[in-house]
Amino acid sequence: MSLLYLDLEYGISGDMFVSALSDLGVDFIPLEKAFNSLGLGVKMKFSPETRNGIQGKKADFSWDHDQPLRLLREIHALLNRLPVSEEVETGSIRAFERLARVEALVHGMDVERVHFHEVGALDTLMDIVGAFFGLEQLGVRRVSASTVPWFTGRVQPAHGELPLPAPATAMLLQDKKIKPSGYEWEIITPTGALLLDQLVQEYSSGFRGTLKKSGTGFGEKQEGFNGLRVFLAETEESQESYDQDKVWLLTTNIDHLTGEELGVFLESMMQAGALDVIHLPGTMKKNRPGCQVQVMCRPDNLSSVQDAFFRHSLTLGIRVQLQERFLLPRRSTGVKLKNRDVQAKEIFLDGRSYVRPEMNDLLNLADRGKESVVQIRLSGKGEAER
Asked: Which of 51, 47, 50 is nearest to 61 (CA)?
């Protein structure tokens, strides 16, 4: 299994992260073309640079015209149209949703009204999508990092002077392992903190595995080294190397909604960020037909899912439970069906791999022809493009 370890000694920003991935060998030209297929007119350039005798890469992102401030729904629409894999799209959307919730809390407004200001600029869009795209290209299925260095100082964003860490950064660093440092400038940007929040599964002083390659990504030169070193390693596939995470399970019994209202409620859970929604029919008190609804979500989506749960069901109470999950290692790949490229998930178990085509791509093929999804899926063997 491929592991990426981040040395956070000198901080992290979005451009430092994608620059480090470029230094590891990731080709971002296909992503640049994907952005430009939407008419954004961007250029993603990574130039060699040497600091303190260490070579690395530095990003230089540009675009042809001014960009508007964007609301979350507009970011959603853009990402939904971007020709990338489902995992890259899903991860990027999830990251922007998390950032929007943090900005809403910081500024005391509804998520729907958050304009992304600095973080809505195309360079940050390229940082976030570039991070998920680069990890996918490297086949990385686990990210770990060193302890996060604390820092102080001041920053001047659009809202006026703020103390460091910026409020959004501080909120995104909650529950992370922190150590003191002497830095008095912004070594961790909000986008850098967002990537830590969304990608890093473990904070430790090192890693176990076979080191394959290292890379360095430089940020805007201010003081000191201002570089992020990353290390690509291979770890043994075993039961101990299964991915792990934690999810919340929200459960309630319902006997007061109409069928139409129940359908809207279940759909609203997915829109609020749920990973899965289960509807279990049953008989309630006084022999009323009803059901139990179980909703699973990630910890960072708990607030939005819980709010939507109450708002769309008006249930009197929700039972919640934090559960650990073991996950099979996976990566995005492709298969050919009906002579067309189809995105798929490749999962690994006991030294073997299994490929499952993505349903959205199967639906698109079905829409173009006169066959059903099941006919296309069973029409022949697709070979994974590795």
From this structure: 47
pLDDT per residue over 330-356, tens digit each? 777 777 776 777 778 888 877 677 888
* Encoded amino acid at 19, one letter: S
Say whether 217 sits in a helix, a strand or coil. Answer: strand
Alpha carbon distance 111, 88 (integer Å): 22
Under a CB-based contact definition with an 8 Å cutoff, are residues 75 and 95 in contact? Answer: no
Partners of 56 in the β-ladder: 49
CB atoms closer than 10 angstroms to residue 255: 13
CB within 8 A of 237, min separation 6: which ones?
Answer: 1, 329, 348, 351
pLDDT tens digits for range 171-207: 999 888 899 988 888 999 999 999 999 999 889 899 9
Nearest to 269 by CA among 298, 297, 299: 297
The closest alpha carbon to 329, from 206, 203, 245, 215, belongs to: 245
User: How far is C-alpha 263 from the geometric centre of its chain's CA atoms?
Assistant: 28
Bridge partners of 44, per DSSP, are 61
Q: What is the CA radius of gyration of the chain?
A: 22
| Cα separation, 42 vs 65, whole angstroms | 9
Three-class secondary structure of residue 166 per DSSP:
coil
β-pair type (210-218, 162-163): unpaired
Instruction: Name the CATH architecture for the domain at 243-327.
Output: 2-Layer Sandwich (3.30)
pLDDT digits (tens, 9 = 90+) for 44-76: 999 999 998 899 999 999 888 777 777 888 888
Q: Return the closest-CA partner of residue 194 out of 229, 221, 169.
A: 169
Do residues 61 and 31 touch, judged by C-beta distance below 8 A?
A: no
Specify the residue for token string 């991860």.
91
Contact of 291 with 281, CB cutoff 8 Å:
yes
Would you call 194 helix, strand, or coil by DSSP?
helix
Q: What is d(CA 307, CA 282) in angstroms, rounded to the nearest whole number?
A: 25
Report the relative pairing of strands 243-254 and 202-203 from DSSP bridges: unpaired
Query: What contacts 89, CB < 8 A, 6 or more positions away?
Result: 79, 80, 82
- Domain ranges within the chain, ordered by starting residue: 2-240, 243-327, 330-377
Q: Is this structure's pTM higher than 0.85?
A: no
